[in-house]
Amino acid sequence: MGNLGLLLAEAFLAIRTRFVCAYCVIVALVIAIGAVYRLGWSEQFYLAVPMIFVVRGLSIWSRDKREGRMRIAAIIVGLPGVIVVGVADWVSPSDSFGVFGRTVCAYALMAVVVTSTWLYVPVSAAIRTLSNKNENRQWQRIAVRTFGIVVYSFVIYAYLLSFLQTHVPKRTGDRTPAHLRLSFEDVSWQSRDGVKIAGWYVPNDNSDRAVILCHGVFADKSDMLDFALALHDGGYSVLALDFRSHGASGGFTVSYGLKEKWDIIGGVDFLRREYPARSKRVFGVG
What confidence tens digit (pLDDT) does each residue in 54-110 have? Predict the structure, then answer.
């Protein structure tokens, strides 16, 4: 019996070792891809989530086939769903979401679902352990389970959603003002709080008015090119920027306007400093 137990322990450790090695390979692969394509750590997180989830599902399948099948099924359903959205984006791009914006949203949604299932595992284990103690009465078990669900829903899960919504993957469109036959300059400046902001400046030598173009979340300055063309033809110089944590700009946290205002104010400072004759009046469009 002792030898049998030892063999079983060695087999279990071998299985765990294989999965740990798989995790290490995934992490190394994501870091390598991040280094090649200059991805931020939040983007590397989004890239790693589905791969780690697949390995996690396989590891549970070796012990609990039902739960393992559920996790694998989530990936089987989730990834094709993201691919379908990506194909739809490619065939019929959305003016509201920008280039592959819907695909990014779908992928982020899958990451939220996947990560929330990870977080629920230790919470549910703690709830079961505390509520199943022999000395606990029925009302105590109900109270423990209710408290655990409330903590998970309004603290852990709420923090997860806020974290993923404020750490979005960057993307950069493949179009520039040159695609619309507009002359432009690649420019950059420091926002008022020190973040490097990237942009395009499209001059209009016959105007003293300038417009700063502001894109939305999950987008970049290339999504505003149609506005740039219309405004340039309407007699404005145009400064299209990438907000912090978007496109070619620095930063990794989205504050939904709280700090992005410093990017715009920095853009106004840049225009007034570098192109004063064309920036006597500065407007914003977004």
Answer: 666 555 555 555 555 656 666 666 677 777 877 877 777 665 555 566 777 777 777
For residue 94, the 8-state DSSP code is: B
Cross-strand partners of 284: 212
Instruction: Pick the closest to residue 163 from 42, 75, 285, 51 (CA basis).
Output: 42
Its pTM stands at: 0.66
Q: How many helices (H) and strands (E) does the chain have?
A: 8, 5
Instruction: For residue 267, report the phi and psi dihedrals to the nearest 5 degrees.
Output: -65, -40
Tell me how far apart the alpha carbons of residues 22 and 54 are, in angstroms, rounded to a whole number.
10
Domain residue extents for the chain: 2-166, 177-285
Biggest alpha carbon–alpha carbon distance for the chain: 91
How many Cα atoms sit within 13 Å of 231 on the Cβ side?
24
| Class of the CATH-defined domain 177-285 | alpha beta
Alpha-carbon distance of 108 to 217, in angstroms, equals 13
pLDDT for res 145: 77
Using DSSP's 3-state secondary structure scheme, residue 104 falls into: helix
Structure tokens at 263: 């990017």
Is-contact 195 264, C-beta < 8 A? Answer: no
